[in-house]
Amino acid sequence: MHETKYIGRTVKRLEDRPLLTGNGRFVADLTFPGMLEAAFVRSPHAHAAIRAIDTAAARQCAGVHAVLTFSDLAPLLAQERLPLQFRTARLPGDITPLVLAKDEVAFVGEAVAVVIAQSRYIAEDAAALVAVDYAPLPAVSDCRQALAPQAPSAHRARASNLLIEFVQSYGDAADAFACAPHRASVNLKQHRGGAHSIEGRGAVAAYDVNDDRLTLWSSTQLAHEVRAFLMRMLRLACLLLRRPIKWIEDRREHFLAAVQERDQYWDLEVAFDNDGRLLAVRGQLIHDEGAYTPQGINLPYNASTALPGPYMLPAFQFDVRVVETNKVATMPVRGAGYPEGAFAMERLLDCIADELQLDRAEVRRRNLVPPEKMPYVFPLKTRAGAPITLDSGDFPSYQRAALDAIDYAGFAERQRRNRASGRYLGIGVGNGAKGTGRGPFESGIVRIGRSGRVSVYTGAMPMGQGIKTALAQICAEQFGIAPDTVSVIAGDTAVIPYGQGGFASRQTVTAGSAVHLAARKVRDKALEVAAHLLEVSVGDLELRDGRIEIAGAPGSGLTLREVAEAVSGVPGYAMPGQFEPGLESMQSFLPSALTYGGGCHAVEVEVDIETCGVRILRYVVVNDCGRIINPMIAEGQVVGGAAHGIGNALYEWMGYDDAAQPLTTTFADYLIPSATEVPKIEVTFAEIPSPLNPLGVKGVGESGCVPAAGAIVSAIENALAPFGVRISEYPVTPARLYALLAGRQQRQP
After folding, report:
1. Out of 175, 244, 340, 622, which could bridge 398 as a Cys pair, Cβ 3.0 to 4.6 Å?
2. How far apart are CA 135 and CA 233, in angstroms?
3. Average pLDDT of 253-275?
4. What are phi and psi of 473, to 5 degrees?
5. What is the pLDDT of residues 418-473, one digit of tens each?
């Protein structure tokens, strides 16, 4: 790998100065003259028919400009329902949410009407005056019970709560089980949780009468997708008020109505040989889809195909049922199904180790895909239809490094010594692989203006992950200029026509590669123009520190500003050298396949058997995200992912009762990890470049959360081995541990 000036270096984030100085701009910060604010009327029922909506009292409130229901909006829209993302042919057409509830509500928090007023305060007060005549209907909360023949229907028009059923299968699982010397089984539950970003959902819409343009500012990951949805749904007549309107989600709305992830029940059986090597896995998954399907079935699909992870699994037979309930829709949160698949496999591997009385880490080592088998192809397909292929990596070395870092060899003595004094320590290890860089493409424009300023424009979306800094470094590398002199405009549909946005740990792979290719094109043209102006060959030139100089003659040559000026044109004169105007290139990178990042987590915990509290003593991560653009940003992404995984494993639980009423709607009862709960995450990187993109990078935004729950739960179970505790669901709360320990006596060693 050639020497680089900026790629692979820790550069301070370009995004941080405005945030640290109080000048960050969020959707809620936007203000316009004459702006109105919106508040929604939301259903208190999990399932009910709407018999009538009386908005008269709300409309009469001073400061209220409009109260709109479905019947008001329907004539103005090209379609009643939101478009379906990631459609598959087998899905019905009426499964996405309506813009507002029409004649039925299907979950607590579903929007029934919207009030637009002079201020949010007035809008909220008026919303409370909207009288909705509901006729409560039976609700279904548990996705397993929803499959029963006499279960209530989540929607009146549906004959069944089963949305779709599909099978993941390869090899001969039946034969493997028939011949296997050993079998084990687990029944797992993986809980619901939310995203809970600091900035909730929000939108500001403003119509410019002079340009006849509607502009929407939104806290979205998919700006171009949102624009496409609006183009499909809106008619011009929808511009009713011709005033800027703002809606900012409050935290209670987020709990009630923002999409969540999972509620999954896994019933699994594993066949294995005398050495603990996997022979086959079979079973079923019941996935709670919630009341609607905004984004296809990618979450249960990812979860089911992620089960093998970085392990060699010869045969697999798995039935997946996706079920509607009267709860909030489920869609990907960080990890997008991969953590669920990883947790299931890690639980199976612990069962194998316990059954054969083998070391848990050794069982994992025996099953990990070795580096000499890379690229390793699983007979499974991604949701795009491509083979699931681990393109590169050395998973055994990641585990070995993690175990060395946490002193796994010395743990047995630490555990024995502490147990003698009444302290229960445990250690766990988990491995994970995450498909990253999902297509179909991402775009990037690199431009050098007449001022000499280098600018980058991309469809990628900045969401706090430092993508602007990374793209600036990638671009700056080609011109030898400081990254903080590069302007990066990301996720603005007004300045770049095509883009996909931020999801699937994709942006450094896709947008990074696009910007790299565009910068190379601009660099090459700049050298050609300079060679023409200086009357030398391109091979005689060097580009460094923003200057193109003749090799061996420092101070000679031209600045990038002078080159850009030369191809900007002079009215009435020919372009020099017949070059096309400007120094600009737009490139799109189309990945041929997913590139897989991943790594190993090793965790040491202490469990207080009196309070049933869990304290993480050490947390080690060895992560492979390919070639690293900025080590500080990459480490931050891994730490953030691990923190998210800690929350999933120990704290976060979105609860519903049997009537599908939400139980945890504040941070007083829905717990997320804070600075006091997250230990120092000790991160080491293993840089194994991907062969699938010109930068050799792999995504890193989600890989930190994939193995986390499996490793943490394994460590807790190891700490409580004297009590014979087996853990089949998370979060592992004190109440759950208390129930597991109740009545159990400590076994003698």
Report:
1. 622
2. 30
3. 95
4. -65, -45
5. 999 999 999 999 999 999 998 898 999 999 999 999 999 999 988 888 999 999 99
Tokens of 688: 């194994």
Q: Closest by alpha carbon to 119, among 227, 177, 19, 37?
A: 37
Structure tokens at 536: 């030398």
Rounded distance, CA 337 to CA 328, Å? 17
The Cα angle at residue 324 between residues 320 and 330, in degrees rounded to 5: 80
Q: Is the pLDDT of residue 4 over 80?
A: no
CA atoms within 13 A on the CB side of 743: 2
Tokens of 328: 């909030």
pTM of the model: 0.94
- Please name which of 505, 465, 187 lies closest in space to residue 336, comparing C-alpha atoms: 505
Rounded Cα–Cα distance for residues 689 and 683 (Å): 18
Confidence of residue 501 (pLDDT cuts 50, 70, 90): confident
Q: Which residues pair with 409 in a beta bridge?
A: none
> E strands along 491-636, which residues?
541-544, 547-550, 558-559, 583-589, 595-607, 614-624
Please name the helix (run of DSSP H) or strand (run of DSSP E) that holds residue 282, with its range, or none: strand 278-290
In angstroms and rounded to an integer, the radius of gyration of the C-alpha atoms of the chain is 28
- Copy the structure tokens of residue 69: 């229901």
| Torsion region of 743: left, alpha or beta (phi above 0 gives left; psi -120 to 50 gives alpha) | left
Q: 229-243 as b/e, with b when 16 or more CB fall inside 10 Å? A: eeeebeeeeeeeeeb
Would you say residue 208 has pLDDT above 50?
yes
The least confident of 121-125, 351-355, 362-366, 496-500 is 496-500
Report helix, strand or coil for 175. helix
What's the rounded Cα separation, in Å, for the pair 465 and 222? Answer: 15
* SS3 of 139-173: CCCCCCHHHCCCCCCCCCCCCCCEEEEEEEEECCH
